[in-house]
Amino acid sequence: MAESLRDIKRQTQAVEKTKQITRAMNMVAASKLKSAQTRMENFRPYAGKVREVLKSLASQMSESTNPLLTVRESKRVRIMLMTSDKGLCGGFNTNVIKTAEDFIKRQRREGKEITMITVGKKGRDYFRRKETIVSHHVDVLGRFTMDLAVSLGNEVIFPFEAAEYDELYMIYNEFRNIASQRPKVVRVLPLQEEDIDEMAGGFYRDYIYEPSEEILFAQLVPMYIKVQIFNGLLETSAGEHGARMVAMENASNNCEEMIESLTLRFNKARQAAITAELMDIVGGTEALAKSF
Amino acid sequence: MAEELLLEMVTPEEMVFSNTVEEVYIPGEEGAFGVLINHAPLLSAVKTGELHYIRGGKTVYYAVGEGYAEVVGDRVTLLVETCDRADRIDTDKVRRQKEMLEKRLDELSKEEEAEIEKVKAELALAETRLKVAEKA
Predict the structure, then answer these.
(1) For range A270-291, the mean pLDDT
(2) Structural domain boundaries enclosing A160
(3) Contacts of B77 in chain A (CB under 8 A)
(4) In Å, how far is A209's CA from the nearest CA of chain B?
(5) Average pLDDT of chain A to the nearest whole number
(6) Which residue, among B10, B39, B113, would best test binding to A if mutated, counting the most A CBs under 10 Å from its CB?
(7) For residue range B9-60, what is the model confidence (pLDDT) as tens digits?
(8) What mean pLDDT is predicted for residues A221-249?
(9) What is the widest separation between alpha-carbon atoms in chain B?
(10) Are B32 and B25 in contact (CB under 8 A)?
(11) Are A182 and A243 part of one and the same domain?
(12) Please, which pLDDT band fits residue A1 given cuts at 50, 70 and 90?
């Protein structure tokens, strides 16, 4: 017996509804992605400038005594993991969580102690029972400003200065383009000297410093850390929306395919039902004709 | 014209201003200072305060947050947390914000030093904004 027509119809309607939702989510993600991308672009000149100023300052400093540049023997590693709060964005969170897990495994093998700070619900939920999370921040990525980066920055800088841990890595999704995000691991603390050194040569300017270069440098280093964190947050947020947009696009396409195959089945079943009915009628009249 | 100063003001959220000006006055941490063309290279911390520049004979006021100013040759770059032009400041909103901050400051206990510092800084910014808004 062919499937009942009503069942197929009901199924088609359900898929139709799902498609409407995924389409809407796709469009919402697209518009959010656009504003996230604009923010990223607007932030670039600022970040670039901070870096530039820091580098030119570093070139003036003979011996840096800044505590944030102090390299200690690395025993305790802290990880700042950035994920999204919401799901339905393909492999976005899975990828970055997997990267974090591999990283933790490697560090453990070297006998290091791991603590974590998570930004975003997904990372916290995954690592809650597995690792020591010193602090977590959820539902902050919807609307955030530099303030968030500043408070996150302070949260990592003070314990580092107090030698509560030796190294800080930030793990987040790098935004490459709309369709592609790649998990990235960056060492944030201690600040990589080669990072600053790289441009130091040949960038000498005889500045007047107000206040002294030591003080300025001491202010700018934490600032640079916060800039890095803010950058991570921006990329995570743009990446999330990009990933969701693509995921929802795929979901909508799959819905369409399903609707197509369901419609085909519906038509076949309908045809079968008509044929069966015709056979009944023909059989019936023949039987009647015979009896006369 | 080569005899102009390029002023760029950048915040983490956007490039606020990028154009040539005749002179600019910056609220430096060790006192306000003016910059004209061919100023010696300078790197200074900027504190919350009033900034103004003169362009085409007209003076434009801004309220700026903390940050840094870099002067090189004929370029001035300002890296600040916030930057609002006088005539774009919503005084009612800032006033409400100020009241809220004052209330919060009263509620805070002495132990919460970091928080007090933060609220005070925000309060200073609100006051600056109000003061600057009057000059619009």
Answers:
(1) 90
(2) 33-247
(3) 49
(4) 5
(5) 89
(6) B10
(7) 999 888 899 999 999 999 998 899 999 988 888 889 999 999 999 998 899 9
(8) 94
(9) 57
(10) yes
(11) yes
(12) very low
| AA identity, residue B136 | A
Residue of chain A nearest B10, judged by CA positions: A46
Q: Is the dihedral of CA A44, A46, A51, A53 positive or negative?
A: positive
Tell me which residue has tokens 């202010």: A219
Q: What is the overall mean pLDDT for chain B?
A: 89
Query: Would A259 be classed as within a structural domain?
Result: yes
Q: What is the pLDDT of residue A62?
A: 58
CATH of the domain at A212: 3.40.1380.10
Q: How confident is the model at residue A71 (pLDDT cuts 50, 70, 90)?
A: confident
List the single best residue of A210, A219, A221, A228 to mutate versus B (max B Cβ within 10 A): A210
Contact assignment for A211 to B45 by CB distance below 8 Å = yes
Task: Say whether both A130 and A259 belong to one domain.
Answer: no
Contact B12 A146 (CB under 8 A): yes
Q: Mention the CATH class of domain B5-86.
A: mainly beta
* Cα–Cα dist A231/A100, whole Å: 19
Query: What's the total number of domains in chain A?
Result: 2
Domain co-membership, A16 together with A158: no
How is residue A171 written in tokens? 């793990």
B73 contact residues in A (CB cutoff 8 A): none
State whether residue A116 is helix, strand or coil.
strand
pLDDT in tens, A195-210: 655 544 445 567 888 8
Give the pLDDT confidence score for residue A196 in this predicted structure: 59
Same domain (yes/no): A21, A56: no
d(CA A123, CA A85): 8
pLDDT of residue A204: 57
Give start and end residues of each alpha helix (H) in B63-112: 91-107
Tokens of A278: 């015709």
- Please list the helix, strand and coil fractions of chain B in percent, rounded to the nearest 5, in that order: 30, 45, 25
Which chain B residues touch A219 with a CB distance below 8 Å?
45
pLDDT tens digit sequence for A149-169: 989 999 999 999 999 999 999
- Statement to judge: residues A96 and A54 lie in one domain: yes
